[in-house]
Design goal:
Elements (H helix, E strand, L loop, with lengths): L18 H24 L14 H4 L9 E3 L2 E3 L1 H41 L12 H17 L24 H6 L36 H4 E3 L7 H6 L8 E4 L2 E4 L10 H12 L14 E5 L5 H6 L5 E6 L7 H7 L4 E3 L14 E7 L11 H9 E10 L12 H16 L3 E6 L2 E5 L58 H6 L4 H21 L26 E4 L6 H8 L5 E7 L6 H6 L3 E5 L12 E7 L1 H8 L5 H11 E12 H13 L3 E7 L2 E10 L11
Parallel strand pairs: 6-7, 6-9, 7-8, 9-10, 13-14, 13-16, 14-15, 16-17
Antiparallel strand pairs: 1-2, 3-5, 4-5, 10-12, 11-12, 17-19, 18-19
């Protein structure tokens, strides 16, 4: 993604390097604009006030003559003496305004007919490259209105202090410990009014744009994450110790000869324990979505990804040496989460396999409630892979405490009707039953209807078996294998209350939209000098972005269209709590996603997504929410977005224009793009600049 940022319609050059240089340039620009504005105000009898909603207003304003005597060169001149001069001045001004209006109308008319002639025969809903001149003309007219309001119209957002570089709101382990929270509750998510930041988080002083996929999977810049060289060298878990420090980079290896175990052999062992030849056959066995609890640095997910397996890492918040932050930096799915006292942020029956290795979870505590939560999110027929220091301990071992813990986990799994498939070394594999008959005779009761929520949003843990009442109870061996799973059958859609025709139309629309979106992901869109008509824009590479956040995912159509277009991305599909809950449908398609309240901070670290997309989110939040402002939402987007990352918003014209004004204060490059087939909606395409914090002096 390393590329120049061209000057956009909101002005300003490439925002990179030292923040002090940027502030000096900004202050100089504001000073120049203010001087020009003051000169204009002094030379006219009435201040000029232009509205953003009417960029032509300056052409139609009235100049009412002053009733006071005019002053020229220090001498007073009477009204009678100056009336003829004023009339001539007004006549000249009216002629000039009429000429400007005529030029604008002719320009728009010619541009319109020229565009229609070029677009004949195409059904593309988005303005293509050859319509840039028309878009530029309209955009520049809007800019005239913006610039005329002066430098104080859009308030510049302040930068956060350096300690916010890795700020994750709602997760404050230190404060939780001060409140007396222990036994894992110190890692719980707790959101409140003070958990928001009202400033722009700067990148670290030595931050570099991440490598593109797949290079970025194996090599990351050490200064992009919060980890010390000592932490790299001392990482000891199975999935953590597959990395090496090489000057300013961390490299990851699947099969390092420096350790006894490696991820390739480990995943091969898991497949064999299930009864498969190797991990490549997991997809044929019905496995697509994997949840990795305490994932290390995502090495298992990195290895399984080429096998068409999508692995979601979940781990608790860590102020340094973070599993989630490093996994995301590698371009792999991850989210901050803990289930010490709250349910995981996923619907029941969400994953085909759940893996955990040396995770530190005390599985034998609280009457096995953590294993019960694993059972809730595991699909029927799915697999639970557990690697632990006290797994598979023979009865002859003298360490009676570890033997007691192993016996408890084994007996709890039996009460959950799990079938023990295999035990090898410290790894055990269980299989969840495909039918519900077994649960009637077990110790743990089935959750009552009011406690068996399809998609809980950080509800307290339940000590009962959940998901059994769901209409989505379909064994993984009866589901279509990937990639056929992405297209749900009419019968499956009916379970979600979705019509097959609506689902098919949604897929078609998103395929068209992705083609147009991709053509906009170029700094050329922000150029003040559009290309010549007929020239084709260079198509961005397939791996231009990797981590994508869809803030209002609907049916997951955006995700599906990106994969159909063979883009090297993964998508975090977010379903707002304020809208219709389609998250179970999205997960049943073989995608990843979570529920989220966008008036709260998303559970991830700063600078973790290359693209943030939202279709209709502004309208949804405007109608449903009153606890937060649009500016709060944009601060959160800026926190999540990587420097030089992209934002694509689609919404009503009025909301897009309001959002565009906010982006100026965020220092984003931004441009409004019209949608040919919909006059009521527009696109807002933005790019975040790279602005680093200053290195602290020693």
């Amino acid at each position: 993604m390393a590329r120049p940022l061209h000057r956009g319609v909101l002005g300003g050059g490439r925002l990179s390097g030292n923040i002090q240089d940027y502030l000096e340039d900004t202050q100089m620009k504001i000073k120049t604009d203010k001087e020009d504005f003051d000169k204009t105000s002094k030379t006219s009898s009435d201040p000029v006030s232009l509205s953003l909603r009417n960029p032509f207003q300056f052409l139609l304003s009235e100049n009412t003559p002053s009733k006071q005597d005019s002053v020229e060169n220090g001498f007073a001149v009477s009204d009678q003496f100056t009336s003829n001069s004023r009339n001539r001045h007004l006549l000249t001004l009216l002629i000039l305004k009429f000429s400007l209006i005529l030029i604008v109308i002719l320009g728009l008319t010619v541009s319109l007919f020229w565009t229609i002639s070029l677009t004949t025969g195409t059904k593309s809903p988005m303005i293509r490259g050859y319509r840039r001149l028309q878009e530029q003309l309209v955009s520049d007219l809007w800019d005239i209105g913006e610039l005329s309001l002066g430098a104080n119209k859009v308030k510049e957002s302040e930068f956060c202090s350096p300690e916010f570089e890795n700020f994750v709101p709602c997760f404050n382990t230190t404060k939780n410990l001060e409140l007396g929270l222990t036994e894992g509750k110190e890692f719980d998510r707790r959101c409140g009014p003070m958990s928001k930041q009202n400033c722009l988080i700067l990148a670290p002083p030595k931050y570099k744009v991440p490598h593109r996929w797949p290079t970025g999977r194996d090599v990351i810049w050490i200064d992009n994450v919060k980890i010390t060289a000592q932490e790299v060298l001392s990482s000891g878990s199975l999935t953590k110790r597959m990395m090496m420090l090489d000057e300013d980079q961390i490299s990851f290896s699947f099969a390092s000869s420096m350790v006894d175990d490696n991820i390739e052999d480990y995943s091969h062992q898991i497949a064999e324990m299930i009864g498969l030849r190797n991990e490549s056959y997991l997809v044929q066995a019905g496995v697509r979505a994997v949840l990795d609890i305490g994932c290390g640095y995502g090495s298992l997910g990195a290895h399984l990804f080429p096998k068409q397996l999508l692995t979601m890492c979940i781990a608790h918040y860590e102020s340094s040496d973070s599993q989630v932050q490093i996994t995301l930096e590698r371009g792999l799915p991850a989210i901050v989460g803990s289930f010490a006292s709250k349910q995981l942020p996923f619907p029941s029956l969400s994953f085909d396999m759940i893996h955990t290795a040396w995770d530190g979870v005390q599985w034998d505590k609280k009457d096995g409630i953590y294993l019960i939560e694993v059972d809730r999110v595991l699909r029927p027929g799915g697999y639970f892979v557990w690697t632990s220091a006290f797994a598979n301990i023979p009865d002859s071992v003298r360490d009676k405490e570890n033997l007691k813990r192993w016996d408890f986990v084994r007996n709890t799994a039996k009460d959950l009707c799990w079938d023990l498939l295999s035990q090898q070394d410290k790894t055990v594999v269980w299989k969840k039953p495909s039918n519900k008959d077994c649960y009637a005779s077990r110790k743990h009761v089935i959750c009552k209807e009011g406690h068996d929520v399809e998609s809980p949003y950080y509800h307290p843990l339940e000590a009962c078996i959940g998901g059994t009442r769901s209409r989505r109870w379909i064994p993984i061996e009866e589901r279509a294998t990937w990639p056929s799973r992405a297209t749900l059958s009419s019968k499956e859609l009916a379970l979600h209350g979705v019509l097959a025709d609506d689902f098919a139309e949604d897929n078609i629309n998103w395929k068209s939209a992705v083609r147009d979106y991709w053509s906009l992901l170029s700094p050329l869109i922000f150029s003040d000098h559009p290309k010549r008509p007929g020239d084709e824009d260079p198509i961005p590479p397939y791996n231009m972005v990797r981590n994508v956040l869809d803030m209002n995912a609907h049916f997951g159509g955006f995700n599906s269209a990106l994969l159909d277009a063979r883009k090297s991305v993964w998508v975090m599909n977010v379903v707002p709590t304020s809208g219709v809950n389609h998250l179970p449908l999205i997960l049943d398609r073989g995608f990843l996603g979570v529920l989220h309240d966008w008036c709260e901070a998303f559970p991830t670290y700063p600078r973790t997504y290359d693209m943030v997309h939202a279709d209709g989110l502004l309208s949804l939040e405007t109608v449903k929410q009153s606890r937060c402002s649009t500016l709060d939402l944009f601060y959160e987007i800026d926190r999540l977005l990587r420097p030089e990352g992209w934002v694509i918003l689609r919404d009503t014209t009025s909301l897009i224009q309001s959002a565009r004004a906010i982006t100026a204060g965020l220092k984003w490059e931004a441009r409004v793009v019209e949608i040919e087939s919909n006059n009521d909606e527009k696109l807002l395409v933005c790019q975040k600049p790279l602005i680093r914090s200053q290195a602290s002096s020693l």
